[in-house]
Design a protein that fits this description.
alpha+beta, 169 residues, 4-stranded antiparallel sheet
Length: 169
């Protein structure tokens, strides 16, 4: 039951991420990653077409080793989360894991399809600028927050021993 819930959340997060990026590329008339494009919507928010070829915040940008590290790490994380999700009993934790999986899948899809991750939400206030991000990044952050909340505040009672009676000889 929780496996299905988590997988459904992962599918929705990945689909929303890919749909938003498809819309963005159409909005800017782009077919893939190219020159930076931007549109100011408010004094503190811009819509941008920024392609992150690095791992995180541009680390190892555009290198073969960076691409290999990104792909390998993403696959390991997704498989690990899938295994964890198959054992989860709580719905809140299943949703959190699903959000992280969906975000990772969305960003990996960009990397495989475009050779870079498309970032487009760009917030700033005065001289303070937050790096551009996307729906997948948001899903990952919300998922990690849900996982932390589940682990720290929604503690579940550990299984109780039945004084050896639960051991089958």
């Amino acid at each position: 039951m929780m496996l299905g819930r988590g997988l459904a959340v992962a599918a929705i997060a990945a689909a929303l991420d890919q749909a938003s990026k498809f819309w963005l590329l159409q909005h800017f008339g782009a077919t893939g990653c190219g020159a930076l494009r931007e549109q100011t919507l408010t004094p503190y928010f811009q819509l941008v077409l920024a392609c992150n070829r690095g791992i995180s915040f541009g680390l190892l940008s555009g290198t073969a080793i960076g691409d290999a590290i990104f792909a390998t790490t993403a696959v390991v994380v997704i498989v690990g989360l899938l295994l964890w999700l198959s054992r989860v009993r709580g719905g809140f934790l299943a949703i959190g894991i699903g959000l992280v999986m969906g975000g990772a899948i969305g960003n990996v899809a960009d990397r495989l399809r475009l050779g870079a991750v498309v970032d487009f939400l760009y917030f700033h206030a005065g001289s303070w600028y937050w790096p551009a991000f996307n729906v997948a990044d948001s899903a990952i952050c919300l998922g990690v927050a849900a996982m932390l909340i589940d682990g720290l505040w929604l503690r579940h009672a550990p299984p109780q021993s039945n004084r050896g009676k639960d051991i089958v000889p």
